[in-house]
Amino acid sequence: MEHAVEVEQAVVVLNGFPALAQLDLTLPTGSVSLVQGPNGAGKTTLLRLLAGLVPLKSGRARVLGLDVVTQRRQVRAAVGMMAPSSMLYDDLTIVENLQFWSEMSGHQTTRGTGDRRTALDAVLGRLEIASIAHQPVSTLSTGQRRRAALAAVAMRRPRLWLLDEPHAGLDQAGRGVVDKLIVDAVDAGATVIVASHELDRVRPMASHVITVAGGIVHRSEVETDA
Amino acid sequence: MHEIAAIVRKDVRIELRSRVVITQVLPFAMIVLILFGLALDADRSTLRSFTPGLFWVTVLFASILAIQRSVSVETAASAFEALRLSGAAGWKVFVGKAVAVAAQLIAIETAMLGGVIVFYRSSVDEVVLLVTSALAATLAIAAAGSLYGVLAVGSGVRDTILPMLLLPILAPVLVAATRAFGDAMGATAVNGWSWCALLACFALLYGLVGGIAYGVVLEDA
After folding, report:
1. Where are the beta strands (DSSP E) in chain A?
2. Which domain holds residue A63?
3. A-chain residues within 8 Å CB-CB of B2?
4. ipTM confidence score
5. Hey, where are the domains in chain B?
6. Over the stretch B83-142, which tens digit does the pLDDT of each residue have?
7. Does any CB of chain B come closer than 8 Å to the CB of residue A139?
8. How much is the pLDDT for B143?
9. How many Å lie between the alpha carbon of B166 and the closest alpha carbon of chain A?
10. How many domains does chain A have?
11. CA-based nearest distance A48→chain B, Å
12. Does A103 touch chain B (CB under 8 A)?
């Protein structure tokens, strides 16, 4: 099976402090992986490493067959990351934000106008935010912002989804929407990595569970009942 | 080039919604112009001769605020990280941000020009020289400001460090723009077009340096 993620002996140092140490990790394409661990364990840093956002001090990391150091731009273009902050502009509406990030990712030029509109409507529908799509982000609740942020990721149609606490701040309906989005992404052939404290929620979907503590992967196990 | 257009559109749209530049930066610039007039307590001819320098010093002060605003739009949304994630080339982000800042500065300068004509009773003798010089100077300020704005984000003390980083770099632009405006406004007898050409060189230089360095600096923002 092709590997979506291959990390060997990766060391990440942030502001002089070791954030990830001697990390080894291999994840197959088309899987859901749960990254679990206490606060400050290195879960977010691991996702940021896979997105090509943090420098690698030593070791090697490949994402979707691309080296995160030498092919950083290609890696970033291929992944979609949902960070703890929404990464949306308060003064723009959801639609304006999604259109902007879609243009910045280069997707506006690769799709026709009709395709773009259809893709936008489909994402808004999947996240169940079509009714608030023309509201400025500043007027949205925390949960609505989270859905909008996920919509921005979905618009990119990434091959690797990196979701940092995607259920945080969402009500039960919203959590269900996120779960369905994850399942749909995997069904479409993408790979999803979820860093979460919502173990009961994510674990049933996950085929791999990665336990991180103190910047070290203590266990990477395959869920046999997934 | 659609990324550049997208950034310009986005920044201008945010400004039109938030009106920070129009309701805060422009009034600040007008107040500074008036305070200069009051502080100098000068007669009309003295004020007229000082107008080019006062105008561009005020533009520099206003540009600090406009650039800080341009940066804070991104930091408030943690969008510098999202811009990196987008995979867009650093130089395209730089050009987009710089053009958006330049557009806002041009609006401020246009209003300020009306201000100096009204408050200082100044006049414009050579419109083409004045407009060309203003455009070149504005592009230089916007280019240097956009680069140093994102550089200051990485320092973690951006609100206080930006003027200290930016103003020394823009001192040559201040001198050249003042001379060119002095000729265009009939305040000084110099060859304004030579100074205008120098401004264009600064704009080109800062633009090139910004285009090359922005992507690297953006990684630390």
Report:
1. 3-14, 17-28, 32-36, 58-63, 66-67, 79-82, 160-164, 191-195, 208-213, 216-222
2. 3-222
3. 103, 106, 108-109
4. 0.85
5. 2-218
6. 998 888 999 999 999 999 999 999 999 999 999 999 888 889 999 999 999 999 999 999
7. no
8. 97
9. 26
10. 1
11. 10
12. yes
